[in-house]
Write the structure tokens for this entry.
Amino acid sequence: MKLSKRLELVASFVPEGSRLADVGTDHGYVPIYLVEKGVCPSAIAMDVGKGPLERAREHIREMGMEERIQTRLGDGLAALLPGEADTVVIAGMGGELVIHILEEGRHMWESVKQFVLSPQSDLDKVRRYLAGHGFAVRKEEMVLEDGKYYTVMLVQRGKMEYENQAQYLYGKELIDARSEVLASFLQKEKNRMQGILAALSGQDTQGALEAKADLEEQLSWIKEAEDEMR
């Protein structure tokens, strides 16, 4: 099975020999790929939607993997029991939902060795939640696909403390690694924000002043990240 660059990166974070649970599996591509490649001996494909789960079942049947990949209908980690999986993938959804799934899945925190997370928004909130609840980002990478940037994190129980907002926003691991993809993202964001500031030039309404202050603060965080990457 051929994966997108984003899903290929997600799959690459799953350690060999993992007993996998894929939350929000959609088409079931990640568990199918990992079982097909021999990375995972078994997997559980989970989704809250009946439609996506049926699509996953169809793909699993087509690949002849019914004996090795289970499908389960359920919200987040609710349908998973401790000991059934040591690696959990939560990818392809917003950061607030990722946090919700982790929070509601506390019964799995101690039995899961690692979570592979790929939130598509609010990454700073996700990193702050992890830091505040006894998790640490052990590895982090970023990929550009079809004009969009995606971040993938390998998370385990542990201690994590970042020094500033820039590290929570853009990822200390990515900054420390001087990620070229992150550098590209920061430049794109800087250009976008400077363009908005230029459009607001000369406007002195309360809304415009607040917007300019917010943009200037965000630009200061980008500069902080860029400075750390030099």
In short: The longest strand covers residues 135-145. The radius of gyration is 19 Å. The chain has a mean pLDDT of 97.
